[in-house]
Structures are given as structure tokens and as C-alpha cells.
């Protein structure tokens, strides 16, 4: 069931860093904030959008003027002595809880620092929320890394890019924040974001996963690469498994993407998608076998002939600048 219509206002929080922390990441941050500022300029007049920063004290001088600064983050991965790391990675839950400060927004947005937004981003998000969804997860597009130095944002916005499996843009209602459960999972290392994904799919009344929209993008075409320290990854994974145990009693299979697919199709997707914890999904699927599920929408034309032409289109189309 979709939730009742309410007037929508948005607070978008990001963990901003200082130039001294990571010069490469700071360069990405500058691009991200340019796209956010452009999106704000194009936001319709009746939609209130507040941009918020959750940061460490030494990053305050680098926060752009149009961004509201929350109280400083007080802990990082470096404070967990057993991990013996110098990396300062914030706890995702600490960032999300900053949304309780200095905002009356009806809905919240969290994106990773490297996620750029399209000019229509806030207008489109508000439109989906007005349709009755109380939570949205948006899949990013990938564009070529060479665009990191492109001064003209319109050139970046023109890139359709390619899809990506990771989820790094989350929208949810104020009411959901009070229900969320967080462990000590750091951002910037796997499986960060999976905790927010499972919280949304567990507690939202009407969540939606958008994987084919051109609303956010990331500069860089890589799909898989090694990242994070192994000890931090192991810590995050252990915290994530503990979180799943706490959330499991409240999970409803119908809320999860793919639940309405045929058995083999849904289990293959859950097994292969890195966001999904397959043992949990398998157990949930069998325990709620008779629960009603949403019927999946079919976007492709049926028939072997159409399937052939879709395949052929990919083979014979030229690429940009061929």
C-alpha cells in the first residue's frame, strides 16, 4: 500500500571531507557539490530542499556556503583500537542520526560523497514521494573517469552512462528514521550502505528500488575493484550480520526487490547481487512462502523476434566517437 500524500520537503545529508584528508576524494567532492548546487537552482519554488553536512571538525572550513553544518562527528574507525587503523571512516549510523538536527524536512536523502545528481534530481524525488512511496533507493549511472576534469556540467549531464549494481542514494521519510537500527558500520568500505538498504526494505510501508533512472551518476566506469582495508571490511561484515539478525523478525518478503519473480530467477538475482545477503533472503523466502507479493512489471516486448532485435541492437550500434 502506498502511503498517504503529504507536502514534501527534503533534507539531503552528505559526509564532507577536508582537502587534507584525501586530495583525490576532495576533488570528487567538489564535482559532487557543483552538481548539487545546480540541482538546487533548478528545484521548483514550492519544494524546500536543505543540504546538510556531517563532518569532522577539521573539515568545517571546506563546507560550501549553501550547506548547513551539523554538529561534528565524534568517532571514526581510528577510535576502534582493536582495528589498529589510521583511517578515519565515519560510522554510517552517526551520519544518518545527524538528520535529527536543525531540519523540519518531511523526508531525508543520504548519498555517498562520490554521487553526483542530475538537475532534475530533487524535483523527481519529490514527485515519487508524492506518489505515495515512503522510501526510495536509486541506482547510479557510471560515466567515464575523464569527466572528472570537465568544467562544463552540461557535458556530464548529457552522458547516459551505464548502470551499476551498488546502491548509494537513499531517500526515506522522517517517520522511518525512528525505526532504523544501526550497528558500527563504517562508510568507505564494504558492505557500507547494505545496512541502510535492509533498514529501508524492513521498515518502509511502500519502498521502491529505481535501477534504470538517470538521476544520479558516478565518475568512473569500474564495476569491481579492491577497496578498504581487510580488517575494516571484516569488521563491517561482522556488524552487518549482527544487524541482519536484529532486523529479520520485522522483514517482509514482499518489500524486497524480485520477490514476485519466479523461484529460479529471484534466487539467482539475490545470490549474485552483492547488496543482498543470500542466506537471509533464502530463509525469508521459505518462511513467508505464502505471503502476497507484488507482480513484476514487464518492460521488454515478448517473443523471440523482439529478443533477437534487442540483442542485435547491442551488437551493431556504434559507440560515441567511433
In short:
The protein has helices at residues 23-41, 92-97, 121-130, 153-157, 174-177, 194-203, 230-247, 263-272, 278-287, 304-316; strands at 9-14, 48-53, 68-69, 107-111, 116-117, 135-143, 162-173, 207-210, 216-219. With 322 residues, it is α/β, with parallel strands linked by helices. Strands 1, 2, 3, 4, 5, 6, 7, 8 and 9 form a 9-stranded mixed beta sheet that branches.
Characterise this structure.
The chain has 322 residues and is an alpha/beta fold. It has a single domain, classed as Spore Coat Polysaccharide Biosynthesis Protein SpsA, Chain A, CATH 3.90.550. Helices cover 33% and strands 16% of the residues. The chain has 10 helices and 9 strands. Strands 1, 2, 3, 4, 5, 6, 7, 8 and 9 form a 9-stranded mixed β-sheet that branches. It is globular, with a radius of gyration of 20 Å. The model has no long low-confidence stretch (mean pLDDT 93).
- Per DSSP, the total helix count is 10
- The helix-and-strand class reads alpha/beta
Q: What's the architecture, going by CATH?
A: Alpha-Beta Complex
Radius of gyration: 20 Å
CATH topology: Spore Coat Polysaccharide Biosynthesis Protein SpsA, Chain A
Quick check: average pLDDT? 93
Helix content class: 25-40%
Count structural domains. 1
DSSP strand count: 9
Shape: globular
Model regions low in confidence, pLDDT < 50 over at least 5 residues: none
Instruction: Summarize the main sheet.
Output: 9 strands, mixed
CATH class: Alpha Beta
Encode the helix/strand succession as letters. EHEEHEEHEHEHHEEHHHH
Distance between the termini: 48 Å
Roughly what fraction of the amino acids lie in strands?
15-25%
Amino acid at each position: 500500500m502506498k502511503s498517504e500524500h503529504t507536502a514534501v520537503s527534503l533534507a539531503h545529508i552528505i559526509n564532507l571531507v577536508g582537502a587534507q584528508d584525501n586530495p583525490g576524494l576532495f576533488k570528487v567532492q567538489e564535482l559532487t557539490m557543483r552538481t548539487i548546487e545546480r540541482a538546487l537552482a533548478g528545484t521548483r519554488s514550492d519544494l524546500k530542499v536543505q543540504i546538510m553536512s556531517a563532518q569532522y571538525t577539521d573539515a568545517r572550513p571546506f563546507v560550501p556556503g549553501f550547506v548547513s553544518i551539523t554538529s561534528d562527528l565524534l568517532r571514526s574507525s581510528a577510535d576502534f583500537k582493536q582495528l589498529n587503523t589510521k583511517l578515519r571512516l565515519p560510522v554510517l549510523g552517526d551520519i544518518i542520526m545527524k538528520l535529527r538536527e536543525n531540519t523540519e524536512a518531511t523526508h531525508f536523502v543520504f548519498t555517498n560523497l562520490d554521487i553526483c545528481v542530475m538537475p532534475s534530481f530533487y524535483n523527481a524525488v519529490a514527485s515519487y514521494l508524492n506518489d505515495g512511496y515512503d522510501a526510495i533507493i536509486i541506482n547510479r549511472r557510471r560515466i567515464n573517469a575523464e569527466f572528472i576534469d570537465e568544467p562544463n556540467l552540461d557535458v556530464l549531464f548529457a552522458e547516459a552512462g551505464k548502470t551499476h549494481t551498488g546502491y548509494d542514494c537513499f531517500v526515506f521519510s522522517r517517520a522511518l528514521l525512528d525505526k532504523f537500527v544501526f550497528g558500527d558500520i563504517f562508510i568507505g568500505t564494504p558492505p557500507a550502505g547494505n545496512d541502510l538498504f535492509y533498514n529501508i526494505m524492513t521498515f518502509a510501508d511502500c519502498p521502491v528500488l529505481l535501477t534504470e533512472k538517470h538521476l544520479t551518476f558516478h565518475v568512473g566506469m569500474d564495476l569491481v575493484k579492491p577497496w578498504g582495508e581487510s580488517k575494516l571490511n571484516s569488521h563491517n561484515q561482522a556488524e552487518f550480520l549482527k544487524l541482519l539478525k536484529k532486523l529479520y523478525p520485522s522483514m517482509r518478503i514482499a518489500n524486497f526487490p524480485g520477490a514476485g519473480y519466479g523461484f529460479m530467477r529471484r534466487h539467482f538475482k539475490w545470490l549474485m547481487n552483492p547488496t543482498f545477503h543470500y542466506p537471509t533472503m533464502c530463509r525469508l523466502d521459505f518462511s513467508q512462502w505464502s505471503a502476497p507479493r507484488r507482480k513484476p512489471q514487464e518492460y521488454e516486448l515478448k517473443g523471440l523476434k523482439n529478443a533477437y532485435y534487442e540483442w542485435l541492437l547491442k551488437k551493431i550500434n556504434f559507440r560515441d566517437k567511433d
